[in-house]
Amino acid sequence: MAYANTDPQVLGFLGRALSLEMSAVQQYLSVSRLLKLRGFDEISSKFQHEAEEEMGHADRIIGRMLVLGVAPNATQLRPARLANSLPAVIAVVQELESEVVNFYQQAVEYCARIEDFDSRLFFEQLLQEERQHASSLNDWRQQLLSHNTPSA
């Protein structure tokens, strides 16, 4: 049973966050496995690490939901998207990361408006980590584009 004072929209943000993070896990694991099959073990390991980071976010979201008395439910997982080159693969994950950043920004703004400071801080931390993640992906993509990269 959810706490009586928990805003239903905050619970909705948590459910959507879980779906987005689990979609990211699925995306990164699929890309990692594909790259490993194609012999790009080092790059595969990087995407495996990214999946683990996203799983950590999902774990924290599940914990928050349980604290609020809500059963976790990621109901809208997206299918993984694959591409033929490493820069294209990174572009696909950058799109997802950009959506996650925008989503967390909306969650932070909403929680600030309703003065739910605990939830605002929770989403702000995830937002900060996702912004750093998106920046890191952008830097990596730029590096790859400046060098001749093999097809994935």
In short:
This protein is mainly alpha-helical. It is 76% helix and 0% strand.
Number of helices: 4
CATH topology: Ferritin
Average pLDDT rating: 90
Please identify which CATH superfamily we are dealing with. Answer: Ferritin, core subunit, four-helix bundle
What percentage of the residues does DSSP assign to strands (E)? under 5%
CATH class bucket: Mainly Alpha
Tell me the distance between the termini. Answer: 47 Å
Number of strand elements: 0
The secondary structure category is mainly alpha
Q: Please state the overall shape, judged from the principal axes of the Cα atoms.
A: elongated
Main sheet summary: none
Number of domains: 1
Which residue ranges are poorly predicted, with pLDDT under 50 across at least 5 consecutive positions? none
> Order of SSEs, N→C?
HHHH
Q: Portion of residues in helices? A: over 70%
Rg, Å, rounded: 17 Å
CATH structural architecture: Up-down Bundle
What does this structure look like?
With 152 residues, the chain is mainly alpha-helical. The protein has one domain: Ferritin (Up-down Bundle), CATH 1.20.1260. Helices cover 76% and strands 0% of the residues. The chain has helices at 8-37, 41-67, 86-113, 117-146. Helix 3 (86-113) packs antiparallel against helix 4. The longest helix is centred in the N-terminal third of the chain and has 30 residues, at 8-37.
Short key terms for the protein model shown above:
mainly alpha; Ferritin; 152 residues; 4 helices
